[in-house]
Amino acid sequence: MTRSLSILIALWCLLWLASLPVRAADLRVQVADPYIDVHTGPGRGYPVFHVVEQGGWVELLKRRTQWIKVRTPRGREGWVHREQLARTLDESGGYVALEERSQSDYFRAHGEAGVMMGDLDGITSLTVHGGYAFTENLQLDLAWTEAAGRFASTRLVQVGLQHHLYPRWRLSPYVLMGAGSVRVEPRNTLVNAGIRSERGVHAGLGLRLYLTREFQWRAEYRNHVVLTTDNNNDEFEEWRTGFSVLF
Amino acid sequence: MANRIQCTVLMLLAWLAGVPVVAQAQDDAALIDPRVERRQVREAQIDSENIEVGLYAGLLAVDNFDTPAVVGARVAWHVSEDIFFELSASQAEVGKTSFEMLGGGAILLKDSERRYQSTQLSVGYNILPGEAFAGRRRAFSNGLYLIGGAGNTRFAGDDRFTLNAGVGYRLLLSDWLNVRMEMRDHIFEFDLFGSENVSHNLEWTLGLGVFF
Predict the structure, then answer these.
(1) What's this model's pTM, rounded to 2 decimal places?
(2) Between A12, A66, A90, which is nearest B80 by CB?
(3) What count of other Cβ atoms lies within 10 Å of the Cβ of residue B115?
(4) Mutation test of the interface with chain A: which of B42, B43, B56, B192, choosing the one with the most A Cβ atoms within 10 A?
């Protein structure tokens, strides 16, 4: 316990050190609207405490979600919404380019990470997955699934390949197949049976819906075959759905 | 002859005088170099800080057991000003049930089974953002959030599918540092005492968070 705690603290300190500001060259923009509102915090609920008039130069410091921290000509620091940034000019006299992601940004190679919830042979399952799409059609995926049931808890760790049939559609179907390990641990309170660890293969179908910005929704059906050492292979089904982030 | 000397002297003078003139002309050229760097600003150049990493500690009231100290770590990703996703892991060493205390040496769990380990994936929703005032001159941003999700709890030797729900208060000490107080219920089905019943485990924690 103390060891894991000290590891956590060390990790946290490291991350904190990594976050110490590396000062980038100042980015300055000129207000083109009659004025812009400066809020005390990065949210619409935080009060407006200052305004910068047309022609005033503001310095852009950092961004959190849809809000940008600025330093005003009078040296005050506050937050403006990114939509107001779209109506400011940079030193070249052009409007500041806002980069709203769209689906076409993900037609090239990209990564994905997400979580899913589902039903694994009658047990609620949770999945964390990450993938890399190296072409429009093909994606390599790594998934970790845990399902704690009444009689046993199951863990699946799987590597798979997905093939997207119509990758440019907003709602896009795909087929998938892969292999991995299946670990079944019987409940302690029932029997003192041993942990079973086997290899498994799976195949399935899925649907992916591009939502907005970098988000998408997925739903999948998978058929698993556990390659046991007995004469018969075990077979079970899994349904899952969840959200993922593209980057 | 005198003319020639005059001419040479004048040329020399002109040459001597000419050097700085030319040099000055070069300096001027440097001053009005048209290649002034005009920076274009794109949104992607702004340093974004949407990831929050934190540590927390507190108390966990384990249903039917005692209330041990709990420690944990969390990583949150703020998607918008309203919504964030959080992955958290926590651990506690649970003591004895009242049955074990009174039952004269009856032991239900091995020591290794008394370790309570929980991993949760949750979604948070920020409500009631605003400012808190400390005296006349200081104001801090703060707000409440609702949080809920699902995950796994390993306790009494088994994995248990767990739902969590709670509410928290976050006070931003600076842009990158915040403190939080949170109350969360961890709910799972527990069958150690024979029948399957729903176990509610209330967790009260204080934490520190850093934005990246």
Answers:
(1) 0.75
(2) A66
(3) 17
(4) B43
